[in-house]
Amino acid sequence: MRGIRVVLLALVIVGAFYFYTTSHRAGLAPTHWFGHEAGKLELIEAAGPEALDPEEQVNVAVYKKGVPSVVNIKSRSVSFNFFYGIVPEEGQGSGFILDKDGHVLTNYHVIANAAGTGSAPQIEATLYNRKTYKADVVGVDRAHDLAVIQIHGTGFTPATLGDSRGLLVGQKVFAIGNPFGLSGTMTRGIVSSIRSVREPGGAGIDEAIQTDAAINPGNSGGPLLNSRGEVIGINTLIASSVGQSAGIGFAIPINTAKAVLNDLVSLGRVRRPALGVHTIPIGPELAAQLGLSADYGLLINDVIAGSGAERAGLRGGSKRAFLGNMPIMLGGDLIVAIDGQQVEDPQDLSHIMNNHRAGDTVTITIFRGQQKMDVKVTLAEAREQA
After folding, report:
1. What confidence tens digit (pLDDT) does each residue in 103-120 have?
2. Active site residue 145
3. Which CATH superfamily does the domain covering 172-258 fall into?
4. Which of 28, 78, 207, 271 has the fewest CB atoms within 10 Å, measured from its CB?
5. Number of neighbouring beta carbons within 10 Å of residue 382
């Protein structure tokens, strides 16, 4: 009896082993033991999308607000080459929409080749939604490297223009544009410095916004934004030996552009103001030699006939002398300030003039001999447009 039990138990064990190793072979596979099916990876997935942190929220908000107004600009022209004959040329940059009428602000150098070609429209602007429009040149300001073009259509989203006064080093900024033709690209950085620079073409930028936000070819003319999505500058220049971002880019302050926009749209040019004087910069050493009442400023050498300075009664020099080999006239008024802003050299005068238009009235503070006085001068339009 006991032997029969042993035999039956053995048969049960053998039968169970056979069952699990044949009919349920897949169920005993090693992959099943380790928790996943054969040929598939076991992945650890997040429970759900996490909320953006505050910094990411700012980034996303700035992009969503700014990108609808940014356009990709392509300009086409032809030039004559001695060896190859007529050669097509193409430029590319960025810009941003100013109003619902389709006026777009960009850099002059972005559309310079196509401007004034006299042929069929040579400029195209593509919006973030990939709609492309032919564009006309409305006005250019070579001296500030600015241009306004216009696209014709409806449903445009204008950019919000901010204030470039009082920007602080360390303030966050965002650049949106089309670097290397990659439309709708945003980079971010900080205001690295505020300084005056000169572009390769000769245009000077007073109080240019230096930033380490990546700016590359194709970004020119695009907006530099603050953390509220307001335009505070126009990206225009990089300092690099390889033609790509090296962490030093420059933008034209938006206030410089705002000062000339009405002229560009209504006249097609800028009514650049002229004070109407030729001056000599004065330093402490020269002031001491000439016995002047201040050791800085601009000494009026002569006053241009018919200018606002002449009508206001400013006086040039009356005594001939030489400064090195340069003949000068001494005895004229010494300009030390304009509208309360100190004037020490020609750059100061140029900066102040850039913030005014022809027809504006300014208060000139001068020394006439030992007497300090204020004179109001109405600025005339410069005879030559830069």
Report:
1. 999 999 999 877 654 455
2. yes
3. Trypsin-like serine proteases (2.40.10.10)
4. 28
5. 17
